[in-house]
Amino acid sequence: MFENKDESRTSLGELGEFGLINHLTQTFKIKQSSTVTAIGDDAAVIDPDGKQLVVTTDLLVEGVHFDLSFMPLKHLGYKAVMVNLSDVYAMNAEATQITVSIAVSNRFPLEALEELYAGIELACSIYNVDLIGGDTTSSTTGLLISVTALGQAEPATLVKRDGAKDGDLLVVSGDLGASYMGLQVLEREKQVYKVNPNAQPDLEPYAYLVERQLKPEARKDVVELLKKIEVQPTAMIDISDGLSSEIIHLCKSSKTGVRLYEEKIPLDPQLIQVCEEFELDSTTVALSGGEDYELLFTIKQEDYEKIKGNPHLTVIGHITPENDGLNLITRANTSIPIVARGWNALKDEE
Ligand code: ADP
Ligand code: MG
To answer: Where does Mg(2+) 1 bind (predicted)?
Structure first.
């Protein structure tokens, strides 16, 4: 990390566009029966077999969404797939295929793109999705990656944002805020490295936070769990921008209010410790940090028994009538309105 590796460099020009695409994608295997035709024709062909097709896309831009000075390219490839799969799972759908489009400058040798595709391939094999196409072009500035993910769902089990009802329980998977604090740690170490390139960062005390930032996992397991325990969420969204902004999206779509309990928000002990070190309020970080890629969903009260005690799921509040508004009940038992603040507000506070 943070070093300039002088590895072998094969110029992209040596391969040509078709040679490059073939080189990067030749080891990918087709796993889904719905994939009829993948890379190599004018378009891919999918047979959805009576299911509803789910489509989502995200564009990642160097310097805006990622910093290659601490983001290894293999992790970047993996994360670019995760952020898309997370959106498919948030529909309670199964992710099945992706396309990957890249724009690269000649600053990147073939070996760098091999790393990127190694991360993409690892994500595809763990999450059982097929790479079925993409586009490759040159860029005069940084690296751009656009991933489109496809998924399928039975019409009866697909979950949107707009189905929450008064009295439903608000549930979140995993824990929140860690990815944001991981980024704070990496950015701090980058500044230290700039001043003293010989300083080796000791990231061990921050391992969980850094991992959540660099190698997030989309919650395929939660979608499978809900199916297994026969819980059909009434509304669902994934947490990419921070808990408060996702709660606002869900409640606005569903035309409801909410009561969120501060003491229930799941936080990892390492997050609490590092927030103290950075003098940041851990609740604020969990509410506004983002990039958690956890699932936030509502369930009927009668389903509570089915999720009770599950270590992956936490009930953090409940849905109220729209007129009651969106409220955070603090540890001191006062009620304050939930507002979307996101990254920028957090930055101002520092
Ligand atoms: P066209 O000129 O018809 O757009 P391309 O030469 O761009 O075709 O692509 C040839 C094939 O390779 C297509 O199947 C396309 O989807 C796939 N492909 C192109 N770039 C990538 C990439 N970066 N990753 C994966 N597949 C790609
Ligand atoms: Mg093309």
So the answer is: 57-58, 135
